[in-house]
């Protein structure tokens, strides 16, 4: 059926027995679930029991490329991960760029499953079919970057893909990330799953060519797409995602001082123009990406001189305004610190902001913060609290357990905790875009703007949905989620998807040219199938309607200042959208996937 | 009988956000328009002055925080004194 793009094999690595095996991926899995996120969810569904704990040796990491990963097309960089999340204690999907996915594909694999637990700290060296287990005890305590460099060295000077964790993951901090060639599997704490398995990193190098069904057509499509991206993504090339800082603030959706309000008074100090004129050093591009949205920023003066990081919108918003910080240099420094220790910047920004609000309200004191004056706007406090989390010291030990545990251990703090299903909010306040509230509530990994469906453009520009309307948002969010689910299954970066026709009405010849099979008419159905499969997993793990609800701050407190002053998304308002969404999905009013929906989707 | 003085001019503010500012070299402008002006008049104004257009699909434009495409009268929406229009590049997720 397929004569290109897929390798048809997966590599299974058992750390307990130090053995690896190669398996064939059934063609029917590929036909129905495409690859990437779809296949990762399928293997998770088959192999992870609902009562499996994230740090048990029964938990596994499922890495899957998509059919487009590694192909000679723009930004075919992405691969997917599924695992039981230490942060949310449920299914986690995550996608990442860098070189690792393309290298895994070149090595001859569509996927890789890591299972078991190593006795001693270990790293893996994969070169085509050969897998070597090496001792990594000497690397304990190394930062993500130090580990990455060691792994690159282990490849003997050959270019490869590298995946690494930092000291936070070694300490099982539940908001720690996996570094991938300086990109990240950021959310959900997957780094700590590697930490629990004593796996410090993996280097992979492939020497094979990934075949395509029609090379001439692929070349033609690539040239046209690159040409289009030069103009359609010119702002990403110049400013990256930092371009949204000023806009989201002006729209009254910027998380400010732990979402106490949605407008930050000093964004001119941290916006894209400030970044570009004062801190930008160079662009960073993932595999085959002509856009290069990554912005390497460096601090040239002041107390944080020498700090360097790739700051992006979410990181700026959550480590910046959400912590009351208007110093771009401090944000870069905090970003770098998170990167080195191995902490997800988004969950960390939420954790620091919570600490600052609790401190200002007198609900915690210096005794809890290791003596830190943890007030909003105090950049030194921001950095110090990050260290506390990474080192599991003082209040950092509780924050390192993630918001799921914080809420259970300290229910009296609930009014100040911004999360859904244990996943802290992204950098948009849903009181300003009500569809975004449904996004957070129904995202299959907790409050995520990507998996959950990014509605803001549709709520401003489509001509169909007022940003504060409730009707129609259920169908809107479902459509965007399904679109994203199939894109995540392709192995392609979402930034370039428009150039290849991957909208909610997919068009063009790229899939036929790549695989030999015209997936295009089926892609939205595949997206719906993937999303529903993930919800089946969540249902099996106990997730119901009660878990899809929004936190108190959003439903009980109106925004007190700025362009969206007075806006609120009450529980009653939210329920109207949620009911409509469940109906659009074919789920029960308790959020359970129904048998006839499963039958319909196949 | 008292006559209420109704000025013939309204003042609106146009904000140029993010990369749009590269084309305008300014963050905002205060613009005077005749009473009865609509968003179409703002469109003409920014077209003449900055070669920008509210109708350009690569640009998003809001009136007091709402996308003009969402407004019942769309580009013909009448303006009142103190209205705020913002122009910014299309957004696609952060």
Summarize the structure.
With about 600 residues, chain A is of the alpha+beta class. Chain A is built from 24 helices and 17 strands. The longest helix of chain A is centred in the middle third of the chain and has 18 residues, at about 215-230.
3D architecture notes:
The complex is a heterodimer of chains A (602) and B (94). Chain A has 602 residues and is α+β, with helices and mostly antiparallel strands. Chain A is built from 24 helices and 17 strands. In chain A, a hairpin with a 4-residue loop joins strand 1 and strand 2. In chain A, helix 1 (27-33) crosses helix 2 (36-47), helix 11 packs parallel to helix 13 and helix 12 runs parallel beside helix 14 (379-391). Chain B has 94 residues and is α+β, with helices and mostly antiparallel strands. Chain B is built from two helices and five strands, in the order βαβαβββ. Chain B has helices at 21-24, 39-50, and strands spanning 9-16, 28-34, 59-63, 66-67, 84-89. In chain B, a hairpin with a 2-residue loop joins strand 3 (59-63) and strand 4. Chain B is globular and about 45 Å long. The mean pLDDT of chain B is 92. The interface between A and B is medium-sized, with 42 and 22 residues.
